[in-house]
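Project standup — Tuesday

K.O.: blocked on the structure for the chain from last sprint. Re-posting the sequence here as requested.
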Amino acid sequence: MNEFRHTQFGGAVNRTQLHVNHSRNAFFFGDAEVSFTLNDASMVDMQTVELPANAGRDAKSRFWKISLTGLRSGMNVLVAQVGPAGKVPLKRPLTINVVDEVTLPDANSDEGLFARLILHETETPSYPSYNLDDARKVMNYIRIAVDNRRFRRPDIFGFQPTPVPTPLKVITATTVVHHKHGPASVLRQFEGLSTYPNLQPKDTKNFEECVRLANDDANAQQPAFAAHVQAALDVANAKQAQPDPSKNGLYGWMTEGSGPPGKFQVAYASLLGITFYTITDEAATPPSAVHAHRAAQPKPR
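H.V.: unblocked you, prediction finished:
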């Protein structure tokens, strides 16, 4: 009795976390009059309401719901003073750690594109097979594949080496396929975010849900999603990709079991439901090297 809780029927707590611009509830069970005060009301907005006694399963207790909203980051203390007026109150503190809101970079920046692409493609903590170490590998492999198309062999994917294609051009690139009979078809090189930044709700669902859960302090998976989003931000904000683990370079990925994205691409590794692809030795040879090799061959007499 006379304790803070995170849920109506949970155990007693003396600490809680709250993200700026987001809200969560705390509950207090007491046996007398209670008043609530915050050390710094500019850091947290507080609304309290006393609920019916049976809401706490004990008709003799008094039960309050406290709605908390983070206004700015820092440490704060909510104190419940229990007891009738005119008597020395019993004090029960709840330390509130207000942390910065989890957000993604501007959607029109390269970092913002990479962050959304990575979160869109990578399996989340909601999946039973998820683990953060493999998720980090997947995120890095995605960044490596995009950067290889930009810097290593843009010619294979229809780009000129100069100027260096932007991440946006790589992600929204299309390939025209000519057919012997009938009109040519246009294929997207990347599905999902190929219309970026003009996306449909189905395309934004993954990364928006990740950010929402990373800020939801009442959700048991909040720490896992916060770590997941931070891992994506680390990869997106890096000046360059991590070293490529494959000999010929990673250039693409597909849902595991769906086959290669191109005839010159071969599977390298599968992680968290995604298969990453490298390219054949023949495709990896720059055109200039092929021409030089042919020029060095003896001419027929």
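K.O.: great, moving the ticket to review. Residues 111 and 237 are 5 Å apart (CA to CA). The chain is about 25% helix and 30% strand.
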